[in-house]
Design goal:
Blueprint: E1 14-20, E2 23-29, E3 32-37, E4 40-47, H1 51-59, E5 61-67, H2 73-80, E6 95-97, E7 103-105, E8 109-123, E9 126-138, H3 147-152
Antiparallel strand pairs: 1-2, 1-5, 3-4, 4-9, 5-8, 6-7, 8-9
The chain binds flavin mononucleotide.
Length: 168
């Protein structure tokens, strides 16, 4: 079996955020996809160890901030290799709050989407949260970053907590 086959699957790059009662956190996720259009339902796969997982379970909501190609490794590393349990990831970052009080990142992003959780699937290490679209907006015309661009151009890696981690 050649696990490199999995490297040929395509994804985007997102900050999945959640929060409640004035507290908020965000993490990098590539395993994000639209499932239906009417109503619009979006799936996100979130590691059970992540603080973001805890916030999504508690608040029953999440946002996606769609990264653009200006996001460098330092910016992505802040959200993808550190936990909000140890640092305030939104310090010195431009953030706005949606009507459901969920943070949305305005730096290095081109659009945002807000969802309320309508279902979830226990997938072992991860939970697949299914969210129905509640609000969204385009911020600018910049180019969305793909997972492939992150590996090939930003020269970044994925940690063990990512659903697409491959150990080689
Ligand atoms: C490129 C990349 C892709 C990632 N994709 C996911 C993902 O789809 N789901 C996930 O749970 N974690 C993913 N991660 C890992 C989380 O971003 C990471 O575990 C983060 O530190 C969790 O932060 P938190 O504890 O503050 O929620 C990814 C990380 C990177 C760098």
């Amino acid at each position: 079996m050649n696990l490199n086959a999995l490297r040929n699957m395509s994804y985007g790059m997102y900050i999945v955020s959640s929060g409640k009662d004035g507290l908020g956190n965000g993490q990098i996720a590539n395993t994000v996809f639209q499932i239906t259009s009417d109503p619009t339902v979006i799936g996100v796969s979130i590691n059970k160890q992540n603080l973001t997982h805890e916030f999504i379970e508690k608040s029953k909501g999440f946002s996606l901030s769609i990264l653009n190609t200006d996001a460098d490794f330092k910016f992505i590393g802040n959200f993808g290799f550190k936990s909000g349990r140890d640092i305030d990831k939104f310090q010195n970052i431009n953030v706005k709050h949606t009507s459901l009080d969920i943070p949305v990142v305005l730096d290095n992003t081109c659009a945002w989407i807000e969802c309320k959780v309508i279902n979830s699937v226990d997938c072992g290490t991860h939970t697949l949260f299914l969210g129905e679209l509640t609000d969204c907006d385009v911020l600018n015309e910049s180019e969305p970053m793909t997972y492939s661009y992150y590996h090939k151009v930003v020269k970044g890696k994925s940690p063990k907590t990512a659903p697409t981690f491959i150990n080689n």
